[in-house]
Amino acid sequence: MCDNVLACTVKTPVALQIGDVKTDTARPGVFVIDVAFPQSVNLQEISFKNYYTAFLNVRLQKVDPESPESGAQWVTCLRNHCLMPNPHTEEGSQDYFSIYRQQMLMEPDNVTSVRLILRQPSSVWLNFTLEDIKIAECGTENSEKKCPSWFSNLTPVEQPMNLQAVSI
Length: 168
Hints:
The protein is mainly β. The chain has one domain (9-141): Jelly Rolls, CATH 2.60.120.260. Helix content is 2%, strand content 40%. Strands 1, 2, 3, 5, 6 and 8 form a 6-stranded antiparallel beta sheet that branches. A 3-stranded antiparallel beta sheet has the order 7-4-9, with no helix packed on it. It is flat.
């Protein structure tokens, strides 16, 4: 995970269900988690711990910096990303994942909100979600990582003696 973790508001998951929620006994297979930022950001990475989510879609709400009066638009930047190879088994069910900017379908710049759409088609798992969601911003181009002071004081590697130049 990057060092540039953003301050954001992660809302509680909302179930998407067809039919009457009170009378329909079928459990929802889709949850939506919204993440909001105080201002527009350029995303570098989204990391989280899976909890029995099989597939993930990521949508971004982006503003156009050249015409902010046009309003924000929702765009899909990741489609059907597999978190569990087989939704009916536990493989990948509690792993940590990172989604990087390079994996997204478009540049995740000028983002005001992220919508995580979680799917679990298996009826084996009663609950599923994403935990420990962290979103990192792109670093600036001229930012440099600080090196520890001991790193600059390393002694150079000794050069091996040239045995071909030695005459007997």
